[in-house]
Every structure is written in structure tokens, then in C-alpha cells.
UniProtKB/TrEMBL annotation:
EC number assigned by the record: 2.5.1.7
Organism: Rhizobium rosettiformans
GO molecular-function terms, A-Z: UDP-N-acetylglucosamine 1-carboxyvinyltransferase activity
Catalysed reactions, as listed in the record: phosphoenolpyruvate + UDP-N-acetyl-alpha-D-glucosamine = UDP-N-acetyl-3-O-(1-carboxyvinyl)-alpha-D-glucosamine + phosphate
Top-tier EC class: transferase
UniProt cross-references to Pfam families, sorted A to Z: EPSP_synthase
Positions contributing to UDP-N-acetyl-alpha-D-glucosamine binding: R102, R131, P132, V133, D134, L135, K172, V173, S174, V175, D317, I339
Sequence positions that bind phosphoenolpyruvate: K22, N23
Pathway: Cell wall biogenesis; peptidoglycan biosynthesis
Function: Cell wall formation. Adds enolpyruvyl to UDP-N-acetylglucosamine.
Protein name, entry field: UDP-N-acetylglucosamine 1-carboxyvinyltransferase
Protein family according to the UniProt entry: Belongs to the EPSP synthase family. MurA subfamily.
Amino acid sequence: MDRIRIVGGNALNGIIPISGAKNAALPLMIASLLTSDTLTLENVPHLADVEGLIRILGNHGVDIAVNGRREHQDGSYSRTVHFTCRTVADTTAPYELVSKMRASFWVIGPLLAREGQARVSLPGGCAIGTRPVDLFIEGLTALGAEMEIDGGYINAKAPKGGLIGARYTFPKVSVGATHVMLMAASLARGTTVIGNAAREPEVVDLANCLIAMGAKISGAGTSTITIEGVPSLSGARHRVLPDRIETGTYAMAVAMTGGDVTLAGTELGLLDTAIEAIRRAGAEVSAVEGGIRVIGHGDAIRPVDIVTEPFPGFPTDLQAQFMGLMTRANGVSHVTETIFENRFMHVQELARLGAKITLSGQTARIEGVSRLRGAPVMATDLRASVSLVIAGLAAEGETMVSRVYHLDRGFERLEEKLTRCGAIVERISD
Ligand code: UD1
């Protein structure tokens, strides 16, 4: 199993190209199931989760063609991938596939809308909480589907003539359930109004792509989305939006190590709340042509309290990284997690580097220390593991992060991007 070795202490200086967003690419790829034409996606990141979904979609009958990767001047790569699902080969998503990647459960929306039926394995437990699927079941039921749980699977069946538009208000904000409702309602008969919809930029990206495919959607990015169903969708060409979590992660890394880095190909507007928190912690962040410039001052980190919330609040996917930054603040800060009930597994690993963190319910109290010291640590989930990398960059001596397959799920060429900016980071393959 690969490990990542980091020798901390170097400031980061240079350019880091930001990849296309994993969390946008996944639902966009799944949207290819809605049409028999070709959906072409540009700026698709090369990540384990994307490759996994390519295999899953292949199982459902999607033909996939990947254009060669081209390196640009700023060191970024762009990948264009063509997805064509002339006919759906299989409406079943088996446990072996869905259990590996929760987002693949989302195929339930397009399969049900296009084929009138789907049999999709329940995703099962997950390291960061129980993550139920009740909102998907309720939402699709509102569109007229019969949803039945049988042997660990959901059997979903649309009424004769297809799904029917309806008004449905989510009792809780869910990104995934909003994606699924958008896709399902696009091919339903009549109008659907989704209340308490997720407002994440990735939802807007999916809506824009569906609109390019011929869907009639308004209000994406607000909490009420209206979808007028159409009989069929066509192909389209769409560029995946920049990864705001990757953007925030590197911005926090620079705030922590010090240095001057331009994050290329991304936008401040995607992560206002997180940028505000990084600024309050003492880093300078500004919009520059083609990206964002971050100037960090390393030792002069101020304590800042944050609470994770659905967009536009502070993203849960940046919580672990921000806690990493706060371990070196000059004072006490608090990090409260409200989205997932068990998303503090990085706490004990950060403690191995010398961080002083105490947990009380959903809130972590972090007493900043003047220095962290490198140590062997273990990656536990995707975002937790990158918080260990950025803490390792700021620690004295060597940090060895094991179980890095978590990182490979969501961070494209992490070692290369950091090394180009002066960090000492290497992958060790055993
Ligand atoms: C997506 C992101 C993930 C991010 C999360 C929250 C992708 C691939 N993943 O995950 O990186 O951390 O949004 O921003 O885009 N819930 C229910 N019932 C349901 C569905 C969800 O109770 O049927 C709960 C979840 O357990 C969680 C909360 O709702 O507590 C939010 O989850 P949700 O927004 O659905 O997360 P995902 O879409 O899985």
C-alpha cells in the first residue's frame, strides 16, 4: 500500500493548478445515463473515484472515450471524456460496486427516469457517519415511484408512463438527494418544485449541464428549484467547474506553512465562507487573473471558530483541513461539525503530531501549539487524510501518512502539485 512521506518546514511558493471538482464530475457523469446521445465533459479530474464510476457506468451500458491528457503551461492537465449510453444495458447497481463509492447510488435517479425501473444496492455504512438514504426514497416517492427495500437493495419502479412532477420539500438539505431529484424530474411528466434544495455550486453545475442537454430548470443555486419535465434529453458539451475543496485545502496549506501561491483556474466565489475564515486566520487571499493568490505568514496564525453548514456555510469537506490549520494558531479555537456525526477521526492523528484537541460532542476545542513534530499517521477518510498532509507540511521533521488510497480518491497529483511549490513530499510504493 502506498504511503506519503513529508518533510515539513518549507514554505510553499509558486503555482498550483486546481483540478475539476470531483463532486461535480461524479453527478455529471451519472447524468449521461439520461440520454442516448453523447455527453462530453471537459476538465474531468483523474481520480480513483472517477475511474471507479467509469467502471460502474460501463456496467449500465455507457460507452466511454477518454481524450489524451494535455499539459498546459501552468502545469494543469485537462481531460475530456465522452459518455454515450445508447441503450441502458442493466438497471441494477450491485452491492460490490455501490459499497465502494456512495455516489454511485445516485444512478437510481436517471435509471428510474429513463427506464422506469432501477434496482440499486443500499450504500451501507460509511466511516464518517450512518449516511441514510431516506431523503432519496421520499423524494422519488413524491414523483410517483414505488420504492421497496428488499435484500439490501432498493427496488424502484415508476408509474406507467413515467415519473410525475410534484412539489417536494426536503426535511434536511442533501446534496446527493438534490442531484437525484434534478435528474429524475428532468424527464418526469409535468412540473416539479424542490424545496429546501441544496445550493452547492456542484448542484448548479449539474443543473447547467442538464439545461444544456435540453432540461428546463430554474432556481438552481437557491433553495427552491423548479423543473419542467421534458420527454427526452440530448447530448451536450460541458466543462466541470473547479474544485472548491481542493482550492480551500491548498489555501489552508499556504496559510499554515507560509509562502505565496497562486491557485490557478479557480474562483473565490466558490468558497466565500472558507476564504473569509482563512483571512481571519491571518492569510492574505485575493482574486488575481486566472485564479486566487494566497500569501501565508506561517507562524502568525490567529484562532478562528467555525461551524460547518450546507452551502453557503463553511463546508464540512474543509473542516479537517481547517482544524489542521488551527492546531498552530496563537490561541484557542473551536470547530463544530453539524453535517456528519462522526467526522473527527483526524483528531487523534493530528494529536500524534503534537496538536492539543479535546472533543465535546460535535465540537472540537483546539489549543494552538507553537510547533508540530512529524510522526507516522494514518489516513482515515478523504478529507481527514489531506489535513494530515498539510499539518505534516508545517511540522518539524518527517511525517509518514499511510493508507493514502483515501487521498487518491479525491486529490489529483497531490505530491506533484506540492513538490512544484517547494514542499518535500514523496510517494513511497511498497
Ligand atoms: C456530498 C459530497 C460530500 C460532502 C457532502 C456534504 C459528493 C460526491 N459528496 O455528499 O463530499 O461532504 O455532500 O456537503 O458530492 N442524509 C440523510 N438522508 C439522506 C441523505 C442524506 O439523513 O437520504 C444526511 C447525511 O447523513 C448527512 C447530511 O444529510 O448528515 C448531508 O448529506 P448529503 O448532503 O446527502 O451528502 P452527500 O450528497 O452524500
